[in-house]
Design a protein that fits this description.
Blueprint (H helix, E strand, L loop, with lengths): L2 H5 L3 E10 L2 E11 L4 E5 L6 H9 L6 E6 L8 H7 E4 L11 H9 L8 H7 L15 H12 L6 E5 L7 H16 L3 E5 L3 H7 L2 E6 L2 E6 L1 H8 L3 E6 L15 E7 L2 E6 L3 H11 L5 E6 L3 H9 L6
């Protein structure tokens, strides 16, 4: 039985707190990460998600609370933990002149049983750049190199911080499939991301952090289901029209003009009622459709819509 098995989870965090001066970055955060899952952490800028994960990885020491990673304390058992986890940080760099193959070989030399570096190069689309200097890589190639470096020690647990930043949509989708392959091989994945679509497609469970606290935690489907008591339909009209009466239609809670279209929020058989009412008023809507609630809707509902620095 592994150390993770004895604690009930790969990661166990209890009442974690981290303060910088008068700023409470992490405030009473508790969660667990289960063996073999992809666990997502999302939140606005400055919400505390990076600080929380840095405490879990042993990069920062929490002011109070408990953290267990693979059955060990990541601060006091730092060397043992680091040999068994992989980390891809959002902000990372290598010497400009080091070559891709040299970087992988260097990192592999730190471990007793490293992964096949040639296979990693092929897996992450870097085989043609093996002899390229780090400074000559594109942003996406650098990102893929850091992911490969995070996997060079066959980690039991890997942290990806903004995994697909800098990747084009096609590369992002391909990376998602590789992440699923990583999980299928038995590695537990913690994914910190600001792409809600990414979290919804990849994660078994997602924690939404705001103002240093977890404000929601469930599977993407569970988070969406909890919000779907209110339905939403959207349409446009060929010509502008006064729609003030639409708020009085049975089941309609709110009518909003968003990005050139009309969004109607409500409950019950909303689509039928709105379509009927529009027809009675002699209006023919364009692209009238029911919209599915997404994880982004949940995120905005729990953290607000204002911009954050």
């Amino acid at each position: 039985m592994s150390d993770a098995d004895s604690t009930g989870g790969v990661i166990e965090v209890g009442r974690l707190r981290k303060v910088y001066g008068e700023t409470v970055a992490v405030d009473d955060v508790s969660f667990d990460v289960r063996q073999g899952e992809i666990f997502g952490i999302v939140g606005p800028n400055g919400a505390g998600k990076t600080t929380a994960i840095e405490c879990v990885m042993g990069l920062r020491r929490p002011d109070s609370g408990s953290v267990s990673v693979l059955g060990m304390d990541p601060w006091f058992d730092a060397n043992q933990v680091k040999r068994r986890i992989g980390v891809q940080l959002q902000q990372a760099a290598l010497p400009n002149r080091i070559k891709v193959g040299e970087a992988l070989d260097l990192f592999a030399s730190f471990y007793d049983d490293p992964a096949d570096t040639s296979a990693l190069l092929q897996q992450w689309g870097l085989e043609g750049r093996k002899d390229a200097a780090f400074a000559n890589l594109s942003g996406g190639q650098k990102q893929r190199l850091f992911i490969a470096l995070a996997l060079v020690n066959h980690p039991e647990l890997v942290f990806f911080d903004e995994l697909t930043t800098g990747l084009d949509p096609q590369a992002r989708r391909a990376t998602w499939e590789l992440v699923r392959d990583i999980r299928a091989s038995g590695t537990t994945v913690v994914l910190v991301t600001h792409f809600m679509e990414e979290a919804e497609h990849l994660c078994d469970r997602v924690a939404i952090i705001d103002h240093g606290r977890i404000v929601a935690l469930d599977s993407p489907a569970g988070l969406v289901e909890a919000m779907e008591s209110e339905k939403r339909i959207r349409f446009t009209l060929p010509e502008p029209a006064d729609l003030g009466w639409l708020a009085n239609v049975e089941g309609v809670h709110r009518v909003a003009h968003e990005n050139g279209s009309i969004a109607v929020h409500g409950s019950g058989p909303l689509l039928v009622r709105v379509a009927t009412a529009l027809g009675e008023h002699g209006l023919e809507p364009v692209d009238l459709s029911m919209e599915r609630t997404t994880l982004e809707d949940v995120f905005l509902a729990t953290t607000g819509r204002e911009l954050r620095a």
